[in-house]
Design goal:
The protein has about 325 residues and is of the alpha/beta class. The chain folds into two domains: about 220 residues, Rossmann fold (3-Layer(aba) Sandwich), CATH 3.40.50; about 80 residues, Alpha-Beta Plaits. The chain has eleven helices and 14 strands. Helix 3 packs across helix 4 and helix 4 packs across helix 5. The chain is elongated, with a radius of gyration of 23 Å.
């Protein structure tokens, strides 16, 4: 008999409106059990809305949302037994870590509360801080407390909204390492971010959302394959960015912090053709021209620009 694999998260044709504003537009997402799924997009793209719907905090107009095969609308209380949620929100500042986690344990009717709390504090390196007020913690420590709270019920699925927001580079690395270890323990992780580099480091699967629409998604290896189909060039001089961006084979054209033009082009375009078009069609004055490696950020920006050209997003 063939084994049936149930997805940790299955979203089909999900749409959500805030009045006349379309926050989510027929999105499709499938998160396989045991994966780290990176949900990537700029602020306001629809990431938090999606996550609040997943944990039953928001209603939606149409579509289907399932957690481990159960429809969220039909069984919101049961769903919460499977999910640990880290919202992008402040913790109660006047509470100690232990008191805060004890309240969560009581709300979830956990037996052996002290053992559960001690275990999760130890896992996250917070045992020595258990009696400290949350207001006296660093930003990185507060994020670990939030993760401890999400892990307290030993859920098979973690939904994390911008877990690295506001953290310094060292604290970010610690959180990413922690998430990798949790995934090795068999926990499925669905996390959002607008920081492309951190998603690229740990995610097994990635979806890119912009203006409520999924514009790219797939295995990280598949998306990296798409990256190889593009070439990036660094140019100094004078370019008409608007004209260059309208070339059919250009995915993105921007100026970096060093004042260089970063151009991402389709891999089947030769350097000679690009140079010729820049000079003849865009009246460019080029001082230097070199190639560089493409990245997930280039794919992200290129996908958005291509959708803008197609009129799918503005």
């Amino acid at each position: 008999m063939e084994r049936v694999i149930i997805s940790a998260i299955e979203i089909q044709d999900l749409s959500k409106n805030y009045g006349s504003i379309r926050a989510l537009d027929s999105i499709q997402i499938n998160v396989t059990t045991g994966s780290i799924y990176g949900y990537l997009g700029p602020n306001g793209a629809g990431k938090t809305t999606t996550m609040k719907i997943l944990v039953g905090l928001l209603h939606y107009q149409s579509g289907s949302v399932k957690i481990f095969g159960q429809e969220v609308k039909k069984a919101p209380n049961e769903i919460r037994n499977y999910v640990g949620f880290l919202p992008d929100a402040e913790l109660p500042q006047n509470s100690s870590i232990e008191r805060f986690l004890t309240l969560t344990a009581k709300m979830n009717n956990l037996t052996g509360r002290k053992n559960c709390i001690s275990e999760v504090l130890n896992k996250l390196g917070l045992s020595k801080l258990r009696n400290r007020k949350i207001s006296n913690l660093s930003r990185g420590q507060k994020q670990r407390v939030g993760l401890a709270n999400a892990l307290l019920t030993d859920p098979p699925l973690l939904i994390l909204d911008e877990p690295n927001r506001g953290l310094d580079p060292i604290a970010r690395m610690k959180v990413l390492a922690l998430l990798k270890n949790l995934a090795k323990e068999g926990i499925t992780i669905f996390l959002s971010s607008h920081i492309i580099g951190e998603i690229e480091k740990i995610a097994t699967d990635i979806a890119i959302i912009h203006q409520g629409k999924i514009i790219e998604q797939g295995k990280r290896s598949e998306l990296q394959g798409q990256i190889l189909e593009h070439k990036r060039y660094l140019i100094t001089g004078e370019l008409d960015i608007k004209k260059v961006a309208n070339f059919n084979y250009i995915s993105s054209c921007k100026i970096d912090c060093l004042g260089r033009y970063n151009i991402v082009a389709s891999g089947n375009v030769t350097e000679e053709q690009l140079l010729l078009d820049l000079i003849q069609e865009a009246n460019s004055r080029i001082k230097s021209f070199s190639s560089a490696e493409t990245s997930l950020e280039d794919l992200f920006l290129g996908s958005i620009n291509e959708k803008i050209k197609e009129g799918v997003v503005i």
